[in-house]
Specification:
This protein has about 300 residues and is α+β, with helices and mostly antiparallel strands. About 25% of the residues lie in helices and about 20% in strands. The chain binds zinc ion (ZN). Zinc ion (ZN) binds near residues 31, 49 and 56. Zinc ion binds near residues 22, 24, 25 and 36.
């Protein structure tokens, strides 16, 4: 496969294809329904809105392309086929609140589960416990959950968004599908709601994904206490939407994307969106030696 799924939004399977939001369309606010990009079983892809446009395809590759591998590991990137005509669930189930509360409670209240999740991310169990307490942006544990009618492996970690559940490694780490939405989607960066409740938060650190956020919280970079004021939020992958920019009005924002081309492109794109709103934009420079970096706390 030429594209890497974790750089895409609204990824789901339809028949033998993977459908997702076209990142090149999304860049300019298009394809909000997330139907344009089709990835075929052979790994080729097409945007339904720009079928013959090579420039558009190149842009998709720039935004979501995978570095070429030349060695033997060529296991297809493709989940096993779903039952045909299975409707893909994107709406929130009526028991969304109960489902997510139970999932957070399982991780909060069971030390074994907590320790297993902590080990997966290489952080302290206490950090996982902290991250289970927010109803609209936390970690949950799902003993059984399915996506589009297809059961995930038992015992999945889920990122709970205010209006969606994103399952980590739904078909195990052996599958290259690193996440899929069990329902809903990201309507704001992960854990923004928690920070948004606190008017004293003056500094946001935006990471490229949930696991980066978990590492920063583990390192105690976040301080949401009234005397503090630094919140970490995660843009799900490099996708960040224009409509999220006003959430950062008047605040200092530090962008902490990955140290690769996609991360650099996302940094430029997000900075441009934030510029009319944020008080100050700081860009974390991965190439600066550690001792020369500005402290992340403002
Ligand atoms: Zn497109």
């Amino acid at each position: 496969m030429k594209l890497t799924l974790d750089r895409l939004e609204k990824v789901r399977t339809r028949g033998t294809k993977i459908i997702a939001r076209c990142p090149a369309c999304a860049e300019t606010g298009g394809d909000r329904t997330g139907d344009n990009l089709a990835i075929f079983a052979d790994g080729n892809f097409a945007c339904a809105a720009y079928q013959q446009d090579r420039g558009h395809s190149r842009r998709i590759l720039q935004l979501a392309g995978k570095k070429e591998r030349h060695h033997a590991d060529s296991r297809p990137d493709f989940p096993p086929p779903m039952r045909r005509h299975t409707p893909v669930q994107t709406a929130l189930p009526p028991d969304f609140a109960d489902l997510t509360r139970a999932a957070r409670w399982r991780a909060y209240n069971n030390q074994e589960t907590q320790a297993a999740i902590a080990a997966e991310f290489g952080v302290r169990a206490e950090t996982i416990r902290i991250l289970t307490t927010c109803s609209s942006g936390g970690i949950g544990f799902f003993p059984s959950i399915s996506i589009g009618g297809r059961p995930c492996l038992p015992g999945r970690i889920g990122y709970i968004y205010p209006a969606g559940i994103k399952i980590r490694h739904p078909w195990g780490p052996g599958s290259r599908v690193r996440f899929a939405w069990a329902c809903g989607s990201a309507t704001e960066p992960w854990r923004h709601t928690l920070a948004g409740w606190r008017s004293w938060v003056r500094h946001y650190i935006i990471t490229e994904g949930e696991s980066d956020l978990i590492a920063l919280v583990d390192a105690k970079i976040e301080d949401l206490s009234p005397g503090g004021g630094t919140a970490v939020v995660a843009s799900p992958g490099t996708s960040f939407r224009e409509e999220w920019a006003p959430l950062f009005t008047g605040r200092t924002v530090t962008l902490l994307m990955d140290a690769d081309d996609a991360g650099a492109a996302a940094t430029r794109r997000i900075a441009a969106m934030l510029r009319p709103h944020a008080a100050q934009i700081r860009i974390f420079n991965h190439t600066t030696p550690y001792h020369e970096r500005h402290a992340l706390h403002s």
